[in-house]
């Protein structure tokens, strides 16, 4: 069973964002073993995934749809450069339009419909009340760039990676809810360049193996991986661009408010080969859950404690957890019978 | 305990020793400021009929060599023009600050050259170009971290994260979490 989108809640200022019981039960909990370690944790994003799970459909549309689209509009208004596309990426952006519209209309016909007559397409997004007649491949027939147009109608950040010289390049994207990386700065970087700041993995040879795997992805065989961090308050836009306005929240955690303030932030990252351009569409879908909601599942609470307790110091630092990590471990310890 | 071999995360470019590519039909030497003695010796080692020297400087200093002199603002146009006239198998040898050599790299790749045709000497100084992730302004010739952004005046930590496209390192506000926690500037190496 899927969840219907609910009215708009905020990811800033008063933070009215909440998860329903169903949203909690389907949360993509990322820790598969008690001790945290790096791995090339890539697996096929095969359809259909388990019923009702966030992996059931190619793109997960959930109860936060309207809230996330409203948040994206705010970010783009503040800073239009959060959506960028180099000239040679036009075809790849149209690939994305086709992929997203086809998937959404097939998987959620109650919310989205797509009708085609040759290159004349009609798109209807009933949730946002958008109707559009356009010519596929002709950017002048859309009210904005193809990437921004579709990006404003689908949850999650998107980077479009150009593939050349056996490498991947960050040449287009719409990124309004990143976990501390800047599309404007990373634009044009190769795979190993944009991973430059990640500690430990380089020594372990993770990037070389991951890149080989990713450049070999075939059309129609998408893959996914999960990534995670901790975020203070239900803030979607934890970008470096806006860090001066939210960085101080990391000092606001106390033993009394830790369960309510600290959120586990999970990214479901999907990589999908685009058929016309040979680019990879890299979608980064973010889910947020407060520790308070997370510990309603005893298994998660116990495992989360162990994963946090064994998290290597360079990762605590890299993920920006230094100021409150001990309070998180202390809070979670009450749910672990070993303690 | 972490293993001692753990290196600080970085994607700083690595500069290998430069040697003349004898297979090239032409050799274009580009130097920011007055050429070092080492660069002059390197330049002298190539046959006169197959080489061009492009000097980039703001001052009108006299140069001994038969060279082309341009200012930084004229570089893109001049380099694009030269590459259009030179053989496809031209090799570029570039010496200057790190931002300068990657600016040259960008212009040359835009003009259709591949990375293997662009030989870069190790930067002549430790000065860095800094890209502010908050206001996107560029601050030139940064030697210490933290450094003040020339755009938004914030105190920026200079991270070892380099963009070849911007020819710059990234700067992130260092005292955003706690305004009282501002470390003393340290020289960048």
Tag the structure with descriptive keywords:
heterodimer; A: 339 residues; alpha+beta; 7-stranded antiparallel beta sheet; 3-stranded antiparallel beta sheet; 13 helices; B: 189 residues; alpha/beta; Rossmann fold; 2 domains; 5-stranded parallel beta sheet; 5-stranded mixed beta sheet; 17% helix; elongated
Describe this structure in words.
- The complex is a heterodimer of chains A (339) and B (189).
- Chain A has 339 residues and is an alpha+beta fold.
- In chain A, 29% of the residues lie in helices and 21% in strands.
- Chain A has helices at residues 21-25, 65-78, 90-107, 146-151, 183-186, 191-194, 206-215, 243-246, 258-261, 291-294, 298-309, 313-318, 325-333; strands at residues 43-44, 83-85, 112-117, 120-125, 130-135, 157-164, 167-174, 223-232, 262-273, 280-290.
- In chain A, a hairpin with a 2-residue loop joins strand 3 (112-117) and strand 4 (120-125).
- In chain A, helix 11 crosses helix 13 (325-333).
- The radius of gyration of chain A is 20 Å and the shape is globular.
- In chain B, the strands form 3 sheets. Chain B has a 5-stranded parallel sheet, covered by helices on one side. A 5-stranded mixed sheet of chain B has the order 7-6-11-10-9, with no helix packed on it. In chain B, strands 8-12 form a two-stranded antiparallel ribbon.
- In chain B, strand 1 (27-32), helix 1 and strand 2 form a beta-alpha-beta unit.
- Chain B starts with 26 loop residues before the first strand and ends with a strand.
- Chain B is elongated.
- Chain B is built from 3 helices and 12 strands.
- Chain B has helices spanning 37-44, 75-85, 98-110, and strands at residues 27-32, 51-56, 68-70, 91-95, 118-120, 128-132, 138-142, 144-145, 147-148, 155-163, 168-173, 186-187.
- Chain A binds chain B through residues 81, 182, 184-189, 192-193, 195-200, 202-203, 240-244, 247-248, 250-251, 312-314, 318, 323, and chain B through 2, 5-11, 131, 133-134, 136, 154, 159-166, 170, 172-173, 176-178.
